[in-house]
Amino acid sequence: MGIIIGDNSGKPIALKTIDKGAHWQKVQLDGLQTDELALSDVFIFPDNTIRILSFKGNVYESTNECKDWCLLRSGKEGESLNSIAFTSKKEGYISGLQGLLLKTTDGGSTWEKIETAVLGSQVNISNLEYTKDNRLLMTTAESFQDEKNKAPLFSIDTQGKISPILLANGKTFVFDAYGLFLINDKVFLLNRDLLYKTKL
Q: How many angstroms from the chain centroid is the CA of residue 154?
C-alpha cells in the first residue's frame, strides 16, 4: 500500500494505491479536525498502520487502512511542521520550522522538545528518515551554505546527539532540501532542480 498526501485548495487530501501506483483512489479523512489544513507527511508501518502529519502540527493515526482516523497529537498555535518518522510504534519524531524537533517514546501521547541549536538559528527541518541502524537523518531547508556553515544533512544517534554528515568543504553553494530518500546505504537529496547522492 502507498499513500500520498498534500493540499487541495487549502484542505487536506490523501490518495491511496494498492497496486504499486498503477491506480489511485481518494482517501476518506473521517476523524480529522474540521478546520484542518494541508497534510505535510505520512508514515506507514509494516502492518499498514498509518500516521499522518498536518502542517498545523496535528498527528493522526489509522489502523484500518484509512477508513477511520484518530488524533494522536494536537498542534500548538504558531507551529508549522513538515516531516514525521518512526522507528517503532512507540518511538518517533516530527519536525518543522524554527528548528522545531519533537520526540515521542510512548506512541504520540507525549512529546519532548529536542534542542537543535547546533543546526543553526531558526532553521527549517524539512525531512526526517530513519536508517537501518536506527539513526535519524535530517535535512534542513537552508538557502545558502558557505565554508562556515554545515551542509544541510545531519544525523541523530540513539543517545540524541546531533552530528553533521555533510560539510561545505570550503565551497559556497545554494541548497534547499525538498526530499530525503534512503536506498540501501545510499542517501539521495532532492534540491529545487537537482538530485544529489552520498553514502552513509
A: 14
